[in-house]
Design a protein that fits this description.
alpha/beta; 5-stranded parallel β-sheet; 4-stranded antiparallel β-sheet
């Protein structure tokens, strides 16, 4: 309860974020409302309602009281936050695992087709197809050990398997390296146990479908953590009846993944992430159906899910977080697309994926005199394979792979005639939200126009004004021969074949 100058504010917590405030003056109840004290906009709106038409209620005094209450609530959340035990070290956890598991994991780390075996294992625990997407997510999780880990957003229609793929891939990382968070509130990262985010793979749930200023504010802390690798915030705290300012800090860095059905994402969030897409094709649907049928029929062969996951937990615990150098980075920089400002973040993303590959293959890579792992042509080849599509979309204005396939199917159906989304769903049998999203992508690149907007129940009328050939974007990353001319022929004959087999 806050009391001063006759104004009394009774406080009742309603949830983790919401508080019910009852304001009384003398014996009269002036306002009863529920708000989030942590949000300045909520406090401002409450103060405005309280003071409106009440000249005897001082606005400055109300603002001060609400700020004090917000500080008290924040302090209470810190005091009641569960504390994390330091627990055993990575090496202790590894040594506690069965010797047979450790031998199998070490043998796998020495395997020439390590990435292929990883992708096969992801398939063995229940992920059908999606090999390149699975490989990328595994490298994102591995990047948690780097100084600049990766973040990714997996897009796709509802029911396309985004969450399943993310969850299954994340299960292959040891519990001490993963933080599962289906929802992250704006202040959550600040008030975790200090050190609990350092080199963690944070696996979030479905991204909020609200793309407004409030949603952007909610992800501000996450953006700061992804960009700077740490958080810091000044908050007012009441100590001994007086207010003082304290600094709350939270160290990272973190690797991060979330999913969404949205086709448009805040630029501030998008340019900090690699944008990936699920495979919406009928052939992928058939793979999933057949895989589920085999599971229910009891026809699964090979090691059990538990054996596969335990082996990968051991594998990840064996990886030492050494620094990774990329000797060819200056040459790559000379040939990297610089026509768009997004390249300033896309280039580090590319380097981090190369580093993640080298870190994963650390028992197969050379070291310099200081013990740094040296990335080589194999790491670049893998990164180039996995990033060509996402970078084309981010830097070159290219289409996502699902949107390309949609355009190929759409063109012969509508030709140059006007059409509606209703017409398209009838002929192509795609979900309404998917069709709308792909048309938005085409419109953003000038390949489709709305010639008559939607009016009530009457759908918008569209027209194609471009073909896939008009939207072809060249490779965003230079070919192998540019960076590795001395081994280009060998790579062409050997490494590229191995990479195709790998993913």
């Amino acid at each position: 309860m806050s009391e001063n100058s006759g104004l009394i504010i009774d406080v009742v917590p309603a949830s983790r974020t919401q508080t019910i405030l009852t304001v009384r003056l003398g014996g009269d109840v002036l306002v009863v409302d529920k708000l989030d004290l942590a949000k300045p906009k909520s406090r401002d709106a409450f103060a405005a309602t309280l003071c409106e038409g009440r000249p005897g209620v001082d606005r400055a005094e109300v603002d001060r009281k609400l700020l004090e209450l917000a500080a008290e609530r924040a302090q209470q959340s810190v005091q009641t936050e569960p504390r994390l035990n330091s627990g055993p070290t990575r090496q202790e956890l590894l040594e506690a695992m069965p010797a047979t598991v450790r031998v199998a994991a070490r043998s796998m780390l020495d395997a020439p087709l390590l990435m292929r075996r990883i992708v096969d294992d992801i398939g063995a625990i229940g992920v059908a197809g999606e090999k390149e997407l699975a490989a990328t997510l595994y490298l994102v999780g591995t990047s948690r050990l780097l100084n600049r880990p990766l973040a990714t957003i997996v897009t796709g229609p509802s029911s396309s398997g985004k969450s399943h793929l993310i969850e299954q891939t994340a299960s292959m990382f040891p519990p001490e390296g993963v933080l599962l968070a289906t929802q992250i509130t704006p202040q959550a990262l600040f008030y975790m146990e200090p050190g609990s985010l350092v080199h963690k793979f944070v696996v979030a749930g479905e991204r909020s479908r609200k793309e407004d200023d409030e949603s952007a504010e909610a992800t501000r802390a996450l953006r700061e953590m992804l960009s700077a690798g740490r958080l810091s915030k000044l908050i007012p705290v009441k100590v001994g009846g007086r207010m003082r300012t304290e600094l709350v800090e939270q160290d990272g860095p973190i690797a991060f993944v979330e999913s969404t059905t949205l086709n448009r994402i805040f630029d501030e969030d998008l340019n900090r992430s690699i944008l990936l897409s699920t495979d919406e094709r009928q052939s992928q649907t058939r793979l999933i159906i057949d895989s589920v049928a085999e599971k229910y029929a009891g026809n699964s062969a090979g090691p059990s899910r538990g054996e596969v996951i335990e082996r990968h937990h051991a594998l990840q615990r064996m990886l030492e977080p050494h620094g990774v150098l990329i000797p060819f980075a200056p040459t790559l920089a000379q040939h990297f697309e610089d026509g768009r400002v997004e390249a300033r973040r896309a280039f580090p993303h590319t380097l981090s994926l190369i580093q993640a590959s080298a870190l994963l293959h650390q028992f197969q890579r050379q070291r310099d005199g200081d013990g740094h792992i040296l990335a080589d042509a194999n790491d670049y080849q893998l990164a180039r394979r996995l990033l060509s599509g996402p970078l084309a979309r981010q830097l070159g204005g290219g289409l996502s792979e699902p949107a390309k396939r949609f355009l190929v199917r759409l063109s012969p159906v509508v030709k140059s005639e006007p059409f509606t989304t209703r017409d398209i769903r009838k002929h192509l049998k795609d979900a309404s939200r998917s069709v709308s999203g792909w048309l938005t992508e085409l419109a953003d690149l000038g390949a489709a126009n709305v010639i008559e907007p939607q009016h009530g129940p009457k759908p918008a009328i569209w027209k194609l004004v471009g073909t896939l050939d008009d939207l072809v974007v060249g490779d965003m990353l230079p070919p192998m021969s540019v960076l590795f001319p001395e081994v280009a022929c060998q790579l062409s004959n050997n490494t590229q074949t191995l990479m195709r087999q790998a993913v």
